[in-house]
Write the structure tokens for this entry.
Amino acid sequence: MARSLPDSSTEWWIFLGALALYFLGRWFFAWRQAQLEGRRRPGRAALDELGEDDDDEMTPVRAGFGGFSTWRQFIGFIVGGVVIAMIAGLTEGALRVALLWFVSPLLVIGLAYMDFREARKARAKRTRSRA
């Protein structure tokens, strides 16, 4: 039943579109935060924030929830998957397409926001520990 990779080019475009939407959402949240902090170039600050490298940190990352750093991320991922499966399984035709086109982007952006908040919390914690 489950396939490991998409079969058609349309499925690949949908997959890549969801990935692009996730990164665009993460960039937007970082840009908005930089703008609220009053940085001179919020767009550049957002890109720098997304590209931060934590290799200089020797602290191990705790991933106790199946590779997710918090239970909120884990639950968000599970709930998102269940919602998508329910829509796909319980609806047909145009209703299915409309619901998936409406709900899927909301779930992707929601997960991007949760990841942004976790990264911001970790960054704030590192900054406080260095001071």
Notes: The radius of gyration is 18 Å. The CA atoms of residues 59 and 126 lie 10 Å apart. DSSP finds four helices and no strands in the chain.
